């Protein structure tokens, strides 16, 4: 049984990390231009910071979870942001490949027979993850994201996960690019306080668009960069069985409020865990639990505990 088969058939969700950018900026005091953690791959000090970050979650998961998704710090490492950050396509391909190589090396150090690890190539939107911006149609998105996805696949990532999708067209294009590269994809959407995407789409409708375009490439769908209270009451219907990932925000504030904040809002990790108990009852197909903005290993640990209690 390969690693993908193991996570699909797991009785309990695997874990992944939390809010990498907010942790590195607010907790570690690092400068991430345009919220781009991938620039840290370019220096020994940056790579050491990324290793410390990943280790905190690997330690947690190795004692409490059936497996771990080890994500690359490549959310901004796409052609939509490359020019603003001083990188061309060749550099983007090189950095994504380096990210996978380092993740695979970490897996070699941590993986056990009873603790499998998947290397997850992380993708982000071409624009702002909090706002719809100028929506891309599937063909445009497929072309723009293809270089990053090809680099991740060729370097040996097990799957790719696109986070903070704000509109279904771009998400569909990414899924198509993943299918062309021969790598499974997870598609995760940003939701506002009303439980809808920033472009106003209902989550179920956005998932249906991606399924029509490239559903055979999608392992499961996800929700991230939203507090559980923003979307849990909208989780009803057969379509929720396709939701396999939740990476929630620590704060219940809106995206507009978080954009204006000068300090991190960590919320309450214990209450965060309690809410995941409710999500466990609403999302029987949940495969991966992690965190997003403002979360750290405490939140992810409480979420895992809350989920177990919710299913008991």
Mean pLDDT: 95
Structural class comes to alpha/beta
Strand content: 5-15%
Q: What order do the SSEs take from the amino end to the carboxyl end, as H and E? A: HEHHEHHEHEHEHEHEHHEH
Low-confidence runs of at least 5 consecutive residues? none
CATH class: Alpha Beta
CATH superfamily: Homocysteine-binding-like domain
* Helix content class: 40-55%
- CATH structural architecture: Alpha-Beta Barrel
Main beta sheet: 8 strands, parallel
Number of strands: 8
Shape: globular
Strand order of the largest sheet: 1-8-7-6-5-4-3-2
- Roughly how many Å apart are the termini? 27 Å
* Number of self-contained structural domains: 1
What's a quick, concise take on this entry?
By secondary structure, the protein is of the alpha/beta class.
Structure description:
This protein is an alpha/beta fold and 312 residues long. The protein has a single domain (14-311), classed as Homocysteine-binding-like domain (TIM Barrel), CATH 3.20.20. 46% of the residues lie in helices and 14% in strands. It contains twelve helices and eight strands. An eight-stranded parallel beta sheet has the order 1-8-7-6-5-4-3-2. β4 (159-165), α7 (168-181) and β5 (185-190) form a beta-alpha-beta unit. The longest helix has 22 residues, at 89-110. It is globular and about 50 Å long. 53% of the residues are buried. The mean pLDDT is 95.
């Amino acid at each position: 049984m390969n690693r993908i088969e193991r996570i699909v058939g797991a009785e309990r969700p695997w874990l992944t990390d939390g809010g990498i950018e907010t942790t590195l900026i607010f907790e570690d005091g690092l400068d991430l231009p345009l919220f781009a953690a991938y620039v840290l791959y370019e220096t020994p000090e940056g790579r050491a910071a990324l290793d410390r970050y990943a280790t905190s979650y690997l330690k947690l998961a190795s004692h409490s979870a059936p497996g771990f998704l080890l994500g690359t710090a490549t959310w901004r490492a796409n052609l939509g942001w490359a020019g603003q950050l001083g990188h061309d396509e060749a550099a983007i391909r090189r950095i994504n490949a380096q990210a996978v190589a380092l993740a695979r090396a970490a897996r070699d150090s941590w993986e056990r027979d009873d603790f499998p690890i998947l290397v997850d190539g992380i993708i982000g939107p071409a624009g702002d993850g909090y706002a719809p911006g100028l929506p891309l149609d599937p063909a445009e998105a497929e072309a723009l994201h293809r270089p990053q996805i090809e680099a991740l696949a060729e370097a040996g990532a097990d799957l790719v996960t696109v986070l903070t999708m704000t509109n279904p067209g771009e998400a569909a294009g990414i899924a198509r690019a993943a299918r062309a590269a021969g790598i499974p994809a997870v598609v995760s959407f940003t939701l506002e306080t009303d439980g809808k995407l920033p472009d106003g789409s209902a989550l179920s409708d956005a998932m249906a668009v991606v399924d029509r375009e490239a559903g055979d490439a999608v392992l499961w769908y996800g929700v991230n960069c939203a507090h559980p209270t923003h979307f849990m009451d909208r989780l009803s219907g057969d379509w929720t069985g396709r939701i396999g990932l939740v990476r929630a925000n620590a704060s219940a504030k809106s995206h507009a409020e978080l954009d204006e904040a000068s300090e991190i809002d960590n919320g309450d990790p214990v209450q965060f865990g309690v809410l995941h108990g409710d999500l466990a009852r609403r999302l029987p197909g949940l495969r991966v639990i992690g965190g997003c903005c403002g979360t750290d290993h405490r939140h992810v640990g409480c979420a895992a505990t809350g989920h177990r209690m919710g299913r008991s």
